[in-house]
Design goal:
CATH class: Alpha Beta
Number of domains: 1
Distance between the termini: 27 Å
Radius of gyration: 14 Å
Mean pLDDT: 95
Low-confidence stretches: none
Largest sheet: 3 strands, antiparallel
Order of helices and strands: HEHHHEE
Strand order of the largest sheet: 1-3-2
Structural class: alpha+beta
Shape: globular
Number of helices: 4
Number of strands: 3
Length: about 110
């Protein structure tokens, strides 16, 4: 992906972190993180939901290769993707919640849109 943020991590660490965050977002519906991380998570999560809308064997294998929990992948195909069947993009929402206490990093909540 051109224009991806490095987030101060090696490529392997960044990829693993994003996989974990996307899985957690799909599992729980929302996560609290920094604004820049939220923007990166949004890009990947929206792609996963778009893939999930196809609901064929190839898309299931693509999602299973990225999402770290089988139950979350099942939830994506059974509950999340059908909810956005008529919608083209805009599946997530980022809400800024102000600075973090320790280092004043701008924090945000990223959640699945209603």
């Amino acid at each position: 992906m051109p224009g991806t943020r490095k987030l101060g991590r090696t490529s392997d660490h960044r990829k693993a972190m994003l996989r974990g965050m996307v899985t957690f977002l799909l599992e729980n519906g929302q996560i609290e993180t920094t604004v820049t991380r939220a923007k990166e998570v949004r890009a990947v999560a929206e792609k996963m939901i778009t893939i999930g809308k196809k609901n064929d064997l190839h898309s299931k294998r693509q999602v299973m290769a990225y999402v770290t929990k089988e139950a979350v992948a099942k939830k994506l195909f059974d509950e999340i993707a059908p909810k956005y069947a008529e919608k083209n993009g805009g599946y997530t929402q980022i809400v800024k919640i102000g600075p973090r206490r320790g280092d004043a990093a701008e924090m945000a909540i990223i959640k699945l849109a209603d």
